[in-house]
Design goal:
The chain is an alpha/beta fold. The chain folds into two domains: 118 residues, 3-Layer(aba) Sandwich (Rossmann fold); 134 residues, Glutamyl-tRNA Synthetase, domain 3, CATH 3.90.800.10. It is built from ten helices and twelve strands. A three-stranded parallel beta sheet has the order 2-3-4. Strands 5-6-9 form a three-stranded antiparallel beta sheet. The radius of gyration is 20 Å and the shape is globular. The two termini are 25 Å apart. The N terminus is likely disordered.
Length: 308
């Protein structure tokens, strides 16, 4: 096992973080934590310690069908084993759907969301090019963006499910106006302490889903709302979520939410170069404990020193 240290590159834009710094570790309880999660948690706590701040724990369990209470308990056990602490109470997203619904309603009032009844098969078939969004999904061709109110009502009467999609072109126009014509950017904090101003390109996502068919929210909406209401100043997460920052910065501007600093850390990968993942059956931290590894072994292996 090794650490993937791909370099993103940076400009020499120096900024000093102003206290109070608040970071967060926000796992989803749909499986046990592995070394990749440990690295992410330690990175978040390290940022807070570096700037004499605090680190929050948030349980991102909007997907209630896949979330399990035993995995929530396992998250607490694993973090305590690593020697990490957090403030109580722990925010659980499944208990705050009304907050995300209110944010979505604000976007609807701005005429930025529209209903989309399309299935995955219809989206794939209707894709006009082979261009995909940053997650590899086909770009939605907007075939339902101009659906009449009568047809929408008929489909809802038949019980058809729908998602709420963001009108990306209109959203970008409004965001640009809110910023006085300035380009949309975000700030990336690198491991060596340098800050880079990065151009955000939310249009790469197309008309992204903001409220899912089966849920009253989405990852992107929930995370920006929670980061704002919890006062998170530094969003620490893996580089696999780097592209998500473009869309999330757009939502922050649209909803008049504060802009955090982003810290996208290196990924822990297998010997074949693939990142560790629950779906790949990566070894759980609990299994490492049973095999006799100590928390000090894991912390040292990942390159941290909690005693400093």
């Amino acid at each position: 096992m090794r650490i993937d240290g791909r370099n993103l590159g940076a400009n020499n834009v120096d900024r000093i973080a102003s206290p109070p710094v608040v970071s967060r570790f926000a796992p989803s309880p749909n499986g046990p934590l592995h070394l990749g999660h440990a690295y992410s948690a330690l990175s978040a706590w390290e940022i807070a310690r570096r700037y004499v701040g605090r680190c929050l724990l948030r349980i991102e369990d909007i997907d209630v069908a896949r979330s399990r209470s035993e995995h929530v308990a396992g998250i607490f056990d694993d973090l305590r084993w690593l020697g990490l602490t957090w403030d109580e109470p722990v925010l659980r997203q499944s208990e705050h759907f009304s907050v995300y619904q209110a944010a979505a309603e604000r976007l609807r009032q701005m005429q930025l969301l529209y209903r989309c009844f399309a299935t995955r098969a219809e989206i794939t078939a209707g894709a006009m090019t082979d261009i995909c969004d940053p997650e590899g999904a086909p770009i939605y061709s907007r075939q339902h963006s101009q659906m009449s109110g009568a047809e929408q009502a008929a489909r809802m009467e038949r019980g058809e499910l729908f998602a709420w999609r963001l009108d990306m072109a209109r959203a970008c126009d409004i965001a640009r106006a809110k910023r006085g014509g300035q380009a949309l950017t975000f700030t990336e904090l690198h491991d060596d302490g340098r800050h880079e101003i990065v151009m955000a390109r939310p249009e790469l996502w197309g008309d992204a889903v903001i409220v899912r068919k089966e849920l009253p929210t989405s990852y992107h909406l929930s995370v920006v709302v929670d980061d704002a209401r919890q006062g998170v100043t530094h969003v620490t997460r893996g580089r696999d979520l780097y592209a998500a920052t473009d869309l999330q910065r757009l939502l922050q501007v649209l909803l008049d939410l504060p802009e955090p600093i982003y810290c996208h850390h290196r990924l822990i990968v297998n010997d074949d170069g693939r990142k560790l993942a629950k779906s790949e059956g990566s070894r759980a931290l609990a299994d490492l404990r049973l095999q006799g590894e100590t928390s000090a072994d894991v912390v040292q292996r990942l390159g941290f020193n909690l005693s400093v």
